[in-house]
């Protein structure tokens, strides 16, 4: 599979920006908040980019697609933990507003990247791309 290195992909760079922003927010929390919600939130946010990178390294279209789907799951998990953090008073509305544009852009970018990976699946009836590519 020829293509860009993972760190050259705009979708990866966007995931990195989100993870770095989350890290900066969580690093200011007290120990209990960091150790509970913070740890989960940072891991979920970091997992988005990590799965994009791992998928690129697999060098097989199906594997890469699978890891992008996992990255989408990690994006949803990140949204969950951000909601928990806000509702528990760990984040202000202004801090949520800092992160929200990255979240809103990353979902569609992940979907577009998924659609762009590889040729049409030849092992499916009719040679149609997988269901996520529509």
Description:
With 134 residues, the protein is mainly alpha-helical. It has one domain (6-118): de novo design (two linked rop proteins) (Up-down Bundle), CATH 1.20.1440.60. It has helices at 10-26, 31-58, 61-87, 93-116. It is elongated, with a radius of gyration of 16 Å.
CATH superfamily: 23S rRNA-intervening sequence
Strand content: under 5%
Q: Which residue ranges are poorly predicted, with pLDDT under 50 across at least 5 consecutive positions?
A: 122-134
User: CATH topology, which one?
Assistant: de novo design (two linked rop proteins)
What is the number of helical segments per DSSP (H or I, 4+ residues)?
4
Computed CA radius of gyration, to the nearest angstrom: 16 Å
Q: What spatial form do the alpha-carbon principal axes imply? A: elongated
pLDDT averaged residue by residue: 89
* SSE string: HHHH
Architecture per CATH nomenclature, i.e. the level-2 architecture: Up-down Bundle
Q: What is the β-strand count?
A: 0
What is the rounded distance between the termini? 22 Å
In total, the number of domains comes to 1
Just give the CATH class. Answer: Mainly Alpha
Structural class: mainly alpha
Helix content range: over 70%
Helix and strand topology:
Elements: H1 10-26, H2 31-58, H3 61-87, H4 93-116
Task: Describe the structure in brief.
The protein has 134 residues and is mostly helical. The chain has helices at 10-26, 31-58, 61-87, 93-116.
